[in-house]
Amino acid sequence: MDDVLNDLTVPARAVDPVTGHERRSAAGRLYHGETAIDFHGRRWWGLGLSITLILISIGSLLTRGLNLGLDFKGGVAWEVDATHLTEDQARAVLDANGIKGNEAKIVQRSGTSGSTLFIQVGDQPDATRQAVQKTLATAAQVDADKVSSTSVSSTWGKAITDKAIRALVIFLLLVAAFISWRLEWKMAAAAIVAMLHDVLVSVGVYSVFGFEVTPATVVAFLTILGFSLYDTIVVFDKVKENTARYGGTRMPYADVSNVSMNQVLMRSLNTSIAAVLPVLSLLVLGAGVLGAVTLREFALALLVGLLTGSYSSIFIATPLLTMLKEREARYAPFRDHHATGADLERLVLGGSPAGRRDVRRTAPVIAAATNPFVAGDRSAPAIETPETLLTHPPRPRKKKRR
Questions:
Q1: What domain range is 269 assigned to?
Q2: d(CA 351, CA 249)
Q3: Which among 325, 346, 374 is the end of a domain?
Q4: At residue 287, does pLDDT exceed 70?
Q5: Distance separating alpha carbons of residues 76 and 69, to the nearest angstrom
Q6: Contact (Cβ atoms closer than 8 angstroms) between residue 6 and residue 16
Q7: Are 199 and 175 in contact (CB under 8 A)?
């Protein structure tokens, strides 16, 4: 009978020593914003990775450059039906008209109306362009008017680049002014550095992998700056809230940033996942399965930018803000000290930072004096009392006059 009762007994679940309640799983703590990840202690992991990516991006831009599309470097492009025309035959047509076919960029596109070849070369005279158009029509067994021909001057691409750079500079200035007014200038500086990091890493990805840069790519790059800024502002707003909350305590700024990032971690993940899923659908289903190649440049740039923006808001912007704030006279004495482990978890769950420091020194004495079951056990959870929560000795009471 005892064996049966033992089998039916529900095993006791672990109790959180910080809260005294049943301890949640890792996923449960993440969902409820109760994680205790030491982001500040691991800040150089993220900063080191970013520095490495930036150096790789700069090196690739200096050595390989960008694979600029027709709209930026200028040239001529033809699009012809590929039912009866192969890539090798198209290159042979170019060679026959005095154009180096092995240097031409030829991409096969698929759509609902069938498959086509998109042929792109450098700038050519009008006579050569028309001759290639007629020869391609003959080789593809279609009429000449069925072969589309596009000629773009490089000056038009330069105008697009100049306008994009001008829009980026104006955007950064307006963002810096708004964040300085709404929050503070140090947060504005950290946010601007994070956005520049996102742009440089995204451009570096295009350079390393040789992705083509089109006007849609530029539009996507400017779009992702808004997402990167939004995610950073969410974290900074929580940092400002916790700074005011702990304003009356002598608390390291690293603790404020750690608590804030743990509390908004789930929100940042939800926002990033919700933004990435539609972009993945455009890239995989739209461009890959359905053959809508025109969506690929925009969706690819968005995907790269969303991933870097989500990363930079936690591992770039907030650590930089913390490093700037720790130079202030208020936080400088605590630069090398911040809570970790159970102490950080207590702060995330709303504990008192003063109680955390005082309890660490007096926990064994208080535990032994107030709880006979843990006498002599230094690993027992500390019991907070009004005396342990005081940051200074209590003032003596004045004697009442009679």
A1: 26-65+156-245+253-325
A2: 12
A3: 325
A4: no
A5: 11
A6: no
A7: no
